[in-house]
User: Fold this.
Amino acid sequence: MIFAANFKMHHTRASTAEYLDRLESILEAAEYPFKVMVFPPATALQPSRDWITVGAQNAYPAESGAYTGEIGLSQLAEFGIDTVLVGHSERRNILGESQEFIAEKFGYFADKGLQIIYCVGEPLEVRESGFEAVAEYLWEQFDGIDLDYERLIVAYEPVWAIGTGRAASVEEIAATHAELRRRIRRPLLYGGSVKPSNIAQIGAIADVDGVLVGSASLDPESFHAMMIAVAPPQV
Ligand code: PEP
Assistant:
């Protein structure tokens, strides 16, 4: 199972380093059967640790160049970063990234061989229009995306569940992941208000291969509590 922590615009360079030290010592002691990833802000990027892959929340699809405010492949390479989030709903909806641009990013980083967590998710009005509308909306978010890319991980994150405290129900997640699984053979993560109190239920759903966690990942003890809930330590 994959546990991915998206810090968004939380944590500094110093607090990210402290977080990774703490998480590393937890993982070293526990030997969990999990793949753990942490996505800090760009200013806090640093090399991956033994049990933790450090990835970028965003990058511009170029090696370097005149793209004010962005970071590209050469800035990622300096820290050995080879994992990137693409298509997060906050970048689609707040930063205005179009499907065309997102597909360009995907193509660029796939061409460079990076591991990509590709995010999709429907807004509330689409969810309220019924499952067919949800499926149609989600598949449109795969326009221009190579579903067979071998380093692809997909994260299904309903926009209405992100940062709201209201996760999708087990039935909603199960049905949506089953729909995605029809065409996607790569790992499927669920994201949206995952926390210690609901991770066991969510993690047990068929076709949920992991979780992408925002708020509840910001404290390493809370992130760890989710791992314990899925794989309690053997005593
Ligand atoms: C996210 O932004 O990817 C996310 C899932 O956030 P939260 O866990 O806070 O809903």
The domain at 2-230 is CATH 3.20.20.70 (TIM Barrel).
